[in-house]
Amino acid sequence: MKRFVIVVDMQRDFVAADGALPVGGAEAIVQPMKAWLAGLRSEDVAGVLFTADTHVPAIYAASTEAEEFPPHCEKGTPGWKNVLEPDAVDPAIPVYRLEKGVFDMWAEPDLTVTAVATGEQVARDALFAELKARDVTEVTVIGVAADYCVRWAIQGLVARGFVVEVPTRLTCGITRPIEQVIANDFADAPVRLEAAA
């Protein structure tokens, strides 16, 4: 049975020590993550989705997120760029990109997902409904930050009936590591840690 993979917000502003909003330890997971992604095989993986925190200054300044965090991931800037190359993934595996303006990749209605190879766009909700229809019910989530965007990604997947796996070595949190996030927030949910990523 195939699974789907979501790579959450591996952007320079979050990963680099001199980024606008660096997540502690994020630089250390880049190489292991590249190796892990390169090891994915099309017989096991139905697709990989890279999410991108995407802000426009005028809109961000008036957002609730701006009350908690400084400006970051402004679209088109070096800090917005992903530190992982989608072409590191086996070309036989479909790769997608989703730009989101808030922590929660599920919160904004009518978001579209873009196929990296073709530029074809599909509604986010339609993509995940199609996965369920194809009996893809397990999703692996990696990236940053464990206690913010990764957490919201997991919550949305659980709400949609997916089983979620999180490799512990491939995510970092701001104030809570993924182990604590899962213990506190998903104790009774179909979410499991994978220590040997």
Concise structural overview:
This protein has six helices and nine strands, in the order E-H-H-E-H-E-E-E-H-E-H-E-E-H-E.
Written overview of the protein:
The chain has 197 residues and is α/β, with parallel strands linked by helices. The protein has helices at 12-15, 26-38, 57-60, 124-133, 149-159, 178-185, and strands at 3-8, 45-53, 95-100, 112-115, 121-123, 138-144, 163-167, 171-172, 191-194. Strands 1, 2, 3, 4, 5, 6, 7, 8 and 9 form a nine-stranded mixed sheet that branches. It is globular and about 45 Å long. The model has no long low-confidence stretch (mean pLDDT 94).
Q: What name does CATH use for the topology?
A: Rossmann fold
The description of the largest β-sheet is: 9 strands, mixed
Helix-strand string: EHHEHEEEHEHEEHE
Helix vs. strand class: alpha/beta
State the fourth-level CATH superfamily.
Isochorismatase-like
Tally of structural domains:
1
Counting DSSP E segments of at least 2 residues, the number of strands comes to 9
Count of helices? 6
The overall pLDDT average reads 94
What gap, in angstroms, lies between the N and C termini? 19 Å
List keywords for this structure.
alpha/beta; Rossmann fold; 197 residues
Question: Secondary-structure map with pairings?
Answer:
Layout: E1 3-8, H1 12-15, H2 26-38, E2 45-53, H3 57-60, E3 95-100, E4 112-115, E5 121-123, H4 124-133, E6 138-144, H5 149-159, E7 163-167, E8 171-172, H6 178-185, E9 191-194
Parallel strand pairs: 1-2, 1-6, 2-3, 6-7, 6-8, 7-9
Antiparallel strand pairs: 3-4, 4-5
